[in-house]
Each structure stands twice: as structure tokens, then as C-alpha cells.
Amino acid sequence: MNIASIITRPDNPVLGDTLLAYLASELPRAGLVKWLAPGTAAEIPFVGRGAALALAWERATEVIGDLPVDLNIISGINRRKRLLVADMDSTIIQQECVDELADLVGKRAEVAAITERAMRGEIEFAGALRERVALLRGIREDQVEALLRDRITATPGASTLVQTMRSHGAYTALVSGGFTLMTGAVAARVGFDEHRGNVLGLDGGKLSGTLEEPVAGADAKRQAVVELRERLGLEADDTIAVGDGANDIDMMREAGLSVSFNGKPAVAAAATARIRHGDMTALLYLQGYSRDEFATG
């Protein structure tokens, strides 16, 4: 059984019964439309594989056209995952922390250009991170604390995603190529069970411009998924992973459901599902949660 998942922005509920009925008519052996959140998220079960599945995707995308809607076709088996592994920068939060830190020393443009190339996979991640971190030398710890408080914002729906999955028994981990100085605060704010990242060097309460080795890049993220899965006694199909940059691809390949959240082209191509319009609650809808099942506190 396949699921056609149809999601849009919560603040722009453009979905309607007519659109969904038309979409269902284009899917082979389609079942009943199920609303997960009126106007915002719905799903349609259908049966098809191989050429029939490819044709179903082609027809469904034609129906959606240019509407601001995320359409994904996913497996109807083992929908609700027991492990969430999420990237931090431009995924769980709306900023790139290293770029924001660079702004404190007037080097934002220089660092952001390196960040963009690294996230697209155009340059090697570890070397690019060391290069950027060297430019951050001299930033005080209290400046980092103020930045976290005043400029770092969670992506809409991130806390709801994490808290809802935890309330239904899932384990949640924030796994970042960024810095533990920041992942700790973000994990606590959003509600993750644990966090991992790179450790910045400190000298007299200031950033030294160095990182503890080895640098945690793409392979460290992948290993984190494998380690967490084995520790919890889970299979790959019990896992959902979400990210946006090239260093997330290996991590996402270890998950039964991988989600590109506003991801770079290479990430979108590698993912099971792609979210460009919905917020982070889209990951709950992909798992079949309805709006009235969301955790609110």
C-alpha cells in the first residue's frame, strides 16, 4: 500500500475536497481521502508499483501544478517512527549558527559563502568548517549566549514535532555538524532527548578559532544514526531523519523515511520525501499523525 501525502503551510490552507477528489481519481485503486488537518494536510492510500507508481506520481504532480503544496508518495507500512534524528542549522532552527557567529566579528559574507558551498557539497565539509571556525577567534562565550537568546529561532513546528514524537514513545536526537555550545541550548529549547555536534576550542572564555578533532561531519552523522538505532534495538525502517545540506545525505540514507526540508538539490534528490512549503509538523503528517494528536505543551 502506498500513501499520497498532501501537505501545505498551516497559515495558507489551500487544500479542498474538490482538489483531493480529483487527485484520488488519478491514482490507481485509490482508497478514501483522509483529512489529517482540514485545509492543511491529507492523505490518500492507493495501490501501485513499478511503472504504475511512476505514472501515479506523474499524474499527481500534474494535478498539484504550481500550488504551494508538498506532494509525496511514501510507503504505508510502519508509518510511525520510533527514532527521530534531525540536523540543526536551517532545519530545526532557521539560521546557520556559524554564519551568525561570523556576523559578530564582521565576517558574515565571507563565512556564509563558504557555508553555502559546503552545504551544496561543492567543497569538503571538515576543511570548510575549520576554515570558518578560524575566523571566529576571539568571540566571547557571553556573546554566544546572547546570540542564542536574541537571534536563533526554532523553525515553526519544530517543538511540536519533537514533543509529539516523544509523547508517542519515540527517541529524538539533534545531530549537527555545528557546535555543542549551541546544540545544547537548541536541544533544550525544542525538547530533544540528546544532542551531538563539534566542540569549539576555548581560551580564557573566548573562542580560540579551533575545533576538537576529529571534526564531526557527514560520516559522524551517519554513525550517530546507526549507533542510536542499535542502542535502542530498532531497524532502519523505524527511523526518520531530516536535513537540508550535503553532509546530511549519508545520515538520511540510514533512515526508513528521510526528509529533505528546504534541502539543496542533492539532498532533495536523495530523500524519501521533500518538504518545501509545510513547516516541521509536516514530518508528523508524513507519519500519519492527525492534528488532534499533536502535543501542545
TrEMBL record:
Q: Which GO terms describe its molecular function?
A: hydrolase activity
Enzyme Commission identifier(s): 3.1.3.3
Q: Could you list this entry's UniProt keywords, alphabetically sorted.
A: Amino-acid biosynthesis, Hydrolase, Magnesium, Metal-binding, Serine biosynthesis
Q: Which cofactor does it need?
A: Mg(2+)
* Chaperone as UniProt keyword: no
Provide an example Pfam family for this protein.
HAD
Q: In which pathway does it act?
A: Amino-acid biosynthesis; L-serine biosynthesis; L-serine from 3-phospho-D-glycerate: step 3/3
Its top-level enzyme class, in one word, is hydrolase
Could you tell me what reaction this enzyme catalyses?
A: O-phospho-D-serine + H2O = D-serine + phosphate; O-phospho-L-serine + H2O = L-serine + phosphate
Q: Does the keyword Hydrolase apply?
A: yes
What family does the entry list?
Belongs to the HAD-like hydrolase superfamily. SerB family.
Check the record and name the PANTHER family matching this protein. PHOSPHOSERINE PHOSPHATASE (PTHR43344:SF2)
Q: What is this protein called?
A: Phosphoserine phosphatase
Q: Organism source for this protein?
A: Terrihabitans rhizophilus
